[in-house]
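Entry type: protein chain
Record version: 2
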Amino acid sequence: MPLTIGTHLGSHEITALLGKGGMGEVYRARDTRLKREVAIKILPEEFSRDKDRVSRFQREAEVLASLNHPNIAAIYDLQEANETRFLVLELVEGETLAERLERGRIPVEETLDIAKHICEALEAAHEKGIVHRDLKPANVKITSEGKIKVLDFGLAKALESTASPPNLMSSPTLMSALPTNGGIILGTAGYMSPEQAKGTAIDQRSDIFSFGCVLFEMLTGHRTFEAETVPETIAAVLMREPDLSLLPSNVHPKLKELIRRCLAKNRKERWHAIADVRVDIGAIMADPYAKNVPATGVERTPLWKIIIPVAVTAVLAAVAMHVVDRKTAEPPPPATITRFPILLPEGQLFATASREIVTISPDGTSVVYSAASQLYLRTMSSIEARPLPGTEGRGQVVNEPFFSPDGKWIGFYAGSEGKLKKIAVTGGAPLVICNHRGPLGVSWGPDDQIFIGDGPTGILRVPAKGGNPETVVKINAGEHASAPQLLPGNEFLLFTLATGSGLDRWDTAKIVVQSLKTGERRVLVEGGSSARYVPTGHILYALGSNVLAVPFDIKTLQVTGQPVSIIDGVMRSGSAGAAQMAVSENGVMVYLPGNESSAIGSRVLAFVDRAGNRTPINIPPGIYNDPRISPDGKQLAMRVQDGTGENIWIYDLSSAASPRRLTFEGTRNTRPTWTIDGQHIVFTSNREGPESLFRQPVGGGPAERLLAADPDKTFQPESMSPDGRVLTFSINPGNSSSIWAFSFGTDQKPKLLIPSSRSATNSNLSPDGRWIAYWASDGGRRDIYVQPFPVTEAKYQISLSGNTHYPLWSPDGKQLFYVVDQPSGTGQIVSVDIQTQPNFTFGQPKPLPIEGIIFNGPRGYDITPDGKRFIVMLPKSQADPVLGSRREQINVTLNWFDEIKQRVPVKQ
C-alpha cells in the first residue's frame, strides 16, 4: 500500500511521493531528528517477508553504505518501522538525466562532462567490488549546481533472491524470473547488458555496456536499443548492433570507437575497466571534434588527385568572378518571418502580475512564463510546457523571470518569500540571490552582475552568486526607476525613469542612459517605458498597448531616427507599466496579446453558495483584490488598481449606488479590514513612506495613523476581535512574517503572537474571540493552524495537503474554510468542521464545489454574515461565455529582426 503524506516512519515524516518501480517506492521525507531532507525507499513487501533475503540485504547494504564519493548518492541507513522495511537515502535535488533527454540530445561538450563524472562514480564502486546493475538516465541526477549524482548503486544485487523471485515486470526496473531457475533478469530493458538479458553471471563490464547505452543516448537523443515491447527490446540488446551513424558526424573518431567497444556483445571484446574509459573521455574532452589531430600516418594522396580538383575550383572561381563583374551583387533575401501562438493548457491562467511574467532564452529556444503561481518552461521543440519545480509560489506572486547570458540559469522573484532567486534550467533547488520586496524589472549582465529596478530607490546591482545589493543609480524624490539593461561595453545602463504616482506615469516616463563610471545621464526618449536595446541597432519601448522601435547608435548613444510602432496590442502589466514581451539575441520575439483594458489580473466578482451556484455581482471587471464584506452585509470594501495607483473603494451591495473611493493619498492603499461596528476601515498605506496601519471613517474624513512601520517592513491588518478591541496584523520584513496584536484605546505596545521563525500570516479570529487561525510554514510546507487566543503552547494543524492558504471562520464558528491550490493556478474552497466545547476537535477537510477562484491578494474571498454565500473573484474570461472558451496564449515571431530592419531602417 502506498504511504500517505504525513505518515511517520520512525523519525521520518513522509512529505511527497517521488516515484515507484519494480524495486520499490521512493518518497521524500523529513528526518525530524536530524532536521534534514532525505529520500525513503520502501522495499517490496515480498522482500520483507523473506528472512534470508533481509539478512543478506543487511550485509549488502553495509557494503553500499561504505561508498563515499561526490558523484554517488549516499545510503544512510536501513530501518524498520510500522512493519515496513525501508532505506534512508541521500535526497538529491535536481533533474534526472532522463528528464534532461526529453528535451533532445545533449551537446557534445556537456555530454562528455556528464559521462566523465558517471565514470568516476562507477570507478569508485567497482574498486569496492560493487556493480550498479541498473545504470540508466533515470538513475543519474543533475543538481542545480551542475553536479552529477548516480543513484541506486548495487540495489539490484542487494534485492536479488537466491531463488526464482515472483514476476515483477514493472517499469522502469525489471526483476523477473526466467523460465528456468538458472538465473534472473535484473536491470532495465534497453540499458541492460547481453549477459543480464540472458540471466547469466555479470561483472563490472555489464555496467560498462549500460554506460555505453547512456552515452549513446546523450549524444544522439535516441535510445540505443528501442522497440515496442520489453521482449523485443531484450531481443534488440542480444541481436542488434547500435546504429553509430546517428552520432554527430563531426565528433572525434575516438569517441565513436569508445562507444563501439562499450557496446560490444561479447564482454571479452568490451572495455575491461571503467577507469580506462574515463581516461579516454578525458583525452577526447580536450579536442572533442578532432580539430588538432595531426595528419600523420595517412597515405600520401597522388598528385593528380590534388591537381584536378584545384584546377576545377579555379575555373569555377573565374566563372563566378566574371558573373559578379557583369552583375551588381544583390544581398541575400531576408529570412522568412514566421508567426505562431503557444497556447497554454486549457484552464491555465497567466499569473496575476503587476510585473513581467514572460521571457525567452538568449538563443531563442526556450520560453519561460509565470502561470498558476509557478514558472513554466516551454522549448520551441516540445509540444507542452513543463513546470519548473522549486518555483512554486504557494498562491503568491512568482514573476520577473530572466535568463542568464549563457542561458543556463533562470532568475525570478518569489513574492511569498520576498526573495530574488535563480534556478538552473536543468532543474534543482533554487538559490537565493538577495532579499527584495518587489523588483521593477531585472536583467542579468554579461559580467555576471544582476541589475534590479528598485522603484523610488533607483537601480541596484547584486552579484549573480548572491549577496547584498548596492545602489548604482540614485534618483530624486518622487522618481521611479525600472527595467535596467546593461548596454554592450558594460559601462552604460539603459532604464526607465518615471515621475508622479499614477499608473499613467509610465506612459509619460523617460527612457534614459547613464554611465556607471561618471554618473552622466542622457534622455533618449520622452514618453514610454520598459526599454531594451536589441542587436539590430534599435531601442524598443512600450507606449500604451504598443511597442515602438527607434534607431539608436550604440557608439554615440544617440537616437538617430523617428520611432515606429512595431507591435500593436501588447499586454501591459499593472503598476510597473512593463510590456509583456521579450526578445532573444538572435531575433525570436514573444509577447502576450492584449491591451490596456485587458490588463493581466482583471477579474470579476460573484456570490457563490455552498452548492457552487454562482450569482454575478454588478461590478465591471477590473484589477481587484482583498474583497471584504461589511458586518451588516450591505457593503463591500475592496482594493482597486487603476490609473491612480492602488486604493480602497466602497461598493453598495444592496442598491445600484455608484462606488465611492475612500483613499486618495499614497500609491498603495491595501488590505481593507472592517471594524466591528462597520464605521471604519483599517488598511495599509504608503502615504507617509513605509506601509503602515491607518484607520479611516467609511463615510469619509481624514485617516488616522495607528502604527508606523519601519522602512524595510510592511504592516498588514488581518482580523478584528468580536469586541472590537483587538486587531491582529502581520509584519512582513520581506523574507518572513510574524503575527501581532494591537489593542485600540490603550498605550500598550503591539504584542507578538506568532514569531517570524514560522513565517506566519493571514490570521483570522474566531467569532467568539477564543481562537486564532493562521497560515504558516513549518518544514517548508504551508498549512493552516489554530491556536487558543490569547496564544498558548497548544497548536492544531488543520490542513493536510501542504498547499493551503487563507483561513476564514464561518460566522457561527462551527467551520473553518481555507483554499487549496488547483493545477490551473486557481483555488478551491475547503471546509473543516470545528468543535470547541468541551475540547477543541476538528474533522476531515471537505472540498466544496467552489473551484476556479482567484485567491491571492492576500485573501481573495469572504463570507456573508449569514454564512450562506461566499464572495469570490473569478478570471475575467468567465464574465462572458464566449471569452470563457478562449485559452491564454503567447505569440511568437521567428526572424523578427528582419522585420525591424525592413520597417525601421538604421542609418549606416
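Comment: The two ends are 72 Å apart (CA to CA).
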